[in-house]
Amino acid sequence: MVKPKIACYITGGWTECGYMTKFLEKINDRYDYRQRFPQKNIGKKGKARKDYKVAGTTGAALVREACGDMRRHPEVLREYSGILIEDDLDDQYFLPDGTGRDHEKIEVRKAEITAQFRSLLGREDMPVIFLYALPEIEAWFCADWENTFGAEYGGKLSEMNAYFSITFKKYVDQYVLTERFSGGNIENYGFFNGQYKKLSEELMGAFQEYSCQSEDFKSNELYNKKINGLIRNNELRYSKKVEGINMLRRLRPETVATSCGHYFARVCNGLRDLHS
């Protein structure tokens, strides 16, 4: 049976452009998700493409790429069963006090883009799905810790992995997410004393900070010494190009939805219920 197709326009980051379509299949496997933009950084045999360059296309630039594709191939795309935009929102659409997003403005912008796409394709009934990561895909990783950060370093840490997973999560919850954004409020992460912090960058820096901290919950001195040595030698780290891709492959949408209820859960349910 041939599956109906959904045209996907994915933010041009290392993590997303390789395995996002596989993640979408976990949400609703009744569709064939065709990545129209950008070119995947992963080849047909699952290996990274050589000399692949990340453009970091996002926001209005990503919408322009989608519109350009629709202008070039209107007849082809008109036959698709849906259009999907996947993007980070970072510091966009925050309320003035930085406590959360202005979801009304998000919906207005989505309606504008939807009308533009439908006009270009001449299909007023074309479903358009906006899978936004608030603030970044790393929020999804924190929401499904067991399958992302909790599993990623098992090969290097062996029997120490459970200890590292538990203690590093406690550190991230306390010092990166803080009490304000832990748990079900992670999608509102970003503003501290009026300054926006990128979650991905904070997580990258958290490894070194974790290794320098002496917390009560870091109770195994032998494990601490070994783990700190791996961090010092840059063998234990987080990068979007390597660890991010691995984490996306293992990510479970149903687990993400339990913590990311402000936006992700609603879009996830909408995509799951989509019928051609």
Question: What does this protein look like?
Answer:
There is one protein chain. This protein is an alpha/beta fold and 276 residues long. Helix content is 50%, strand content 11%. The protein has helices at residues 16-27, 59-72, 74-78, 103-121, 137-143, 149-152, 154-157, 161-181, 199-212, 221-232, 240-250, 253-259, 264-272; strands at residues 5-10, 32-37, 82-88, 128-133, 191-192, 195-196. The chain has a four-stranded parallel sheet, sandwiched between helices. A two-stranded antiparallel sheet has the order 5-6. β5 (191-192) and β6 (195-196) form a beta hairpin. The two termini are 14 Å apart. The model has no long low-confidence stretch (mean pLDDT 94).
Could you give a quick summary of the protein structure above?
With 276 residues, the protein is α/β, with parallel strands linked by helices. It is 50% helix and 11% strand.
Radius of gyration: 20 Å
How far do the termini sit from each other?
14 Å
Strand residues, percent: 5-15%
**Lateral arrangement of strands in the main beta sheet:** 2-1-3-4
Q: Given the C-alpha coordinates, what overall shape results?
A: elongated
Beta-strand segment tally: 6
Counting helices, strands and paired strands, the structural category is: alpha/beta
Largest sheet: 4 strands, parallel
Can you count the helices? 13
Show unreliable segments: none
Provide mean pLDDT, rounded: 94
Helix content: 40-55%
Give the H and E element order: EHEHHEHEHHHHEEHHHHH
Please outline the helices and strands.
Elements lengths: L4 E6 L5 H12 L4 E6 L21 H14 L1 H5 L3 E7 L14 H19 L6 E6 L3 H7 L5 H4 L1 H4 L3 H21 L9 E2 L2 E2 L2 H14 L8 H12 L7 H11 L2 H7 L4 H9 L4
Parallel strand pairs: 1-2, 1-3, 3-4
Antiparallel strand pairs: 5-6
Helix pairs in contact: 1-11, 2-4, 5-12, 8-9, 9-10, 12-13
